[in-house]
Amino acid sequence: MSSRKEITISPTTRIEGHGKVTIVLDELGNVSDAHFYATEIRGFDYFLRGMEADRLPFIISRICGVCSTAHIIASVGTIESIYKTEITETAKKLRELLLMGQIINNHSLVIYFLTLPDFYFPIEEDPSKRNIFQIMRERPDIGKRAISLRSFGAKILDIIGKREVHILSTIPGGIINPLKERERQGLLREAENSLTTTKEALALGKELFEKNWTDFKKAGDYKTHYMALTKDNALEFYDGKIRIIDPEGATMSEFTAQDYMEHLEEKTYSWTYAKFAYLKALGWPKGIVQVGSTARMNVNSKATTELAKKELEEFKRKFGNPAHATLLFDYARLIDLTYACERAQELLKDESLTRTDTRVKVEPKGGRGIGVVEAPRGTLAHEYVLTREGRLKQMKLIIPTQVNNEAINLNVKDAATEFIHKGEIKPGLLNRIEMVIRAYDPCIKCATRQANEKLTVEIKNSRGQLIETL
Amino acid sequence: MKVNIVSLTCCAGCVSSFLNAGEALLEVLLGDFEIVYSPTFIDLKEIPNVDLAIVEGGVRTKDDEKLIREVRAKSRTLVALGICATHGGITSLGNMLSLKKLLEKEYSLIDTAKLPELEDLMYPICNFVDVDYYIPGCPPMPFLIVHTLKNITSGKQPLRHESVVCTECHRKIIPAKLDRLYGIYEKESDPLLCLVSQGFVCLGSLTREGCGAPCPRAGFTCFGCRGPPDSLMYRSRDMYAFLIQVISKRTSIPEEKVKQELYRNPFIFHTFIFSKFERSKAREKVI
Predict the structure, then answer these.
(1) What ipTM goes with this model?
(2) Which of A81, B61, B89, B147 is deepest in the core (most CB within 10 A)?
(3) Which domains does chain B have, with CATH numbers?
(4) Which chain A residue shows the shortest CA-CA distance from B221?
């Protein structure tokens, strides 16, 4: 029998979705391989085939209940690009506001509920105590802030989207319900309070980060390419072009959403249900690219709102441009949150937001199209092929976690190598590995899907006659 | 009260919805409600014995099955949260074809030593274990979750919602004379009239109330995410036939024609028609 050994961490905790880590040791007890993998699968991209495009955005959001709004906005964008529909300015503003609500709702969850316990408690702390509920018991004010911030995001989604999770109002052609003046005023008042809360979150986050920075730096860095949306070099989530920069920060390419699939390629492995995505031009494994909060900071040189601009400049000054340390994702997420709150307030101040021209008529067509938005975890792309009747024939989604997948795996292997030597495991291994994974806030739910290009779906009528094959 | 929050195969939207409850959530968390195990929030790897387990998601893999059996054995009360846990949910759409077969073709390389094997179909959790309370919804509204949990933790029987969404909808049912059905966004809807009588396929008349009818109130058809009401929880009730009758009565379109149009679209019943939900087990326990 071989003396090779495997160490398994299951389930990975404070991460969305079912993950597992396996570390393989060689005969000498040193790390030979380490994997972070997804153990669940649902198969969206095959069971949605044949669905009519009208219904699709609302159902496809079920891929992820945490970032459902980002999926819906990418999805309607894709359908509109096929239909060649130009939506109104009012609808664009409302959609951007929805996306800001999504960022606030998600980031307040990730920052407070998932990662804060790592910064708040010393590493020696009893694992059963290292969580937000313990923090709430010790510091009720922090708990209150976490929940009020999340509620503000939820309220935007509820009032404009008509539901907090899996919103309804966003349809191909615009937004179905215009915003009422009374609702705008109410949200605006809350936006002001939320900005105050965000400033407190920022101060707390920066304080804890600085305290731990010498330790955090050790958690590794990967000098890879980065990708994010950009609009005139400024931080952007909804509109704009996609830019890829090289590890030194120089722009490698910049393109519109319709060209997205020309630049990225997917890859699968036998040991995980999640896919990997990389840059086509550089091939595998040279084309590793990262998306998400740090990538947004690296790709863009400024932000259009006051406080976020200041914070972004400080970030670049402190950590370099581009910044590479893995745990900076947590820091950059605070800047995302600041921007989202400020931008939401800016949008809500605009009185034209309540105009009633939120919807245009769509003319269903067949064809291929792509929609891209900046989701909480990074650049999200949907690509559909529709039949002439407006039914889904084929789809391909490139999800942020798929793009970051290889970087996550490399980070896990690094952490394992640092802590395991000749079969001896230094304390703190588990925490370090989970912290680097957590930095990416991977959404395993999103990243696991498979497609079989040869699959056909037959639609029959009530008498069993074949009416359409997809 | 010690609490577990467990996720099986799902989108995590139900726990997300619970966390959107704002002040009411804070009240629950600061009360007699100690979350001791939850991979999403807590660094504990072993499942402890608890008073209450909240389960989101259904059973898609053998891992899910193992996990739900262990959770059941270690909890006094078990709550199924959301349509995936209660009825199988959206992933049940995959039950039209065998996902397993599909994977064999495309993923002949899947290493089953490392990855959990798939069940033949997507199942709700009640096919494997006894469930004490079902809270269906995709996702259930925050107030519904919080209200139910509050009742359970204080030892009271949670309020059950037995009837249909129409009882919570403000729209007036006035039968109309139409010649065909319409796609969900094909025309703008009248804000006060029943959506079915305007020719839209709204599932409110065969979907459980308790959500407050947010979809038809905002001008969208009900997608049926709360599953069937008490009256349709019997095997003898044919939901398809019932819907055809409702639509035909409210639009004056002949039943045969309604049937043809509905059969054209396999996605109308997305949340429950392909489900393996055992209706008889859940009777009297659905919130």
Answers:
(1) 0.91
(2) B89
(3) 2-160 (3.40.50.700), 165-264 (no CATH)
(4) A168
